[in-house]
Amino acid sequence: MELNIIDSKNPLNVSDDVFGREYKEDLIHQVVNAFRAAGRSGTKAQKSRSDLSGTTKKFKKQKGGGARHGDYRAPIFVGGGRAFAARPRSFEQKINRKMYRGAIASILSELARTGRLKVVESFRYRRAEDQAAVCQDRCDRWWQDADRYREWQPEPVPRRAEPAVRWRGGCCWPESGGPGVRRQCRDDRRYGQEGRGVAGMSNERLLQVLRAPLVSEKSARIQESANQYVFEVARDATKADVKMAVEELFKVNVKAVNVLNVKGKTKAFKGRLGGRGGFRKAYVSLAEGQTIDIVAKA
Fold this sequence. Notes:
By secondary structure, this protein is an alpha+beta fold. The protein contains eight helices and ten strands. The strands form four sheets. The protein has a four-stranded antiparallel beta sheet with strand order 5-6-10-7. A two-stranded antiparallel ribbon has the order 1-2. Strand 3 (165-168) and strand 4 (171-174) form a beta hairpin. The protein is flat and about 90 Å long.
């Protein structure tokens, strides 16, 4: 049997015992199932009532109190053991070597018959010069992002000396990060967030960052004492996003931003437990002499 080689006129002679076999679906199905089963970890483990720690003392008298129970480790109680607890086990299936080789030969034969088996002369790996060119291109784009950040700053930021470059996971990373620039390759960022914390945001993003001002006794007290204002912000908003949004919407100079996540409270209604949704808030410190009229702006 002969197989055609890509970009070559000379075919490759192969054995009919490997590339000319009959397609056996049941054999391939059994081998593939065994291969996938062997990849399962099988580490699931649960505790039965005998595995739990605690007293075995009977917690109430035998009669006169409703149902008769023993200890609290019984499966019917919250925190008790499982009735049929899972144990770590292996999912491996025994496949004879002859069956495995026959399945592989059947797969290769079917691929060769349908034209889905490609044969090449050799593989060419990327040279070190090409990889260095890709690295240099990514570093250039990193400095372009840093320049965009400097143009956005109200005060000019002096350009640092270009740092040394080292390899990290197939990508070049500067040894020292620029001001406010995320040390991450531009190609690796999530789509739609290429400019987070680096350049200006769109008007739609500005309106999404600030949800509402939070007015309370504590916020009023820190507003008078420390000139800080509290806002509810988007769950994915960063300090740079909040600072940019406040400066663009209220036309003030922001000195510092602190963000934190507030966990929702657990509530009970008619014996059923529930919870309120959490949110993210930001404490914005303004420069001296700067104020925001929360009532008028809200």
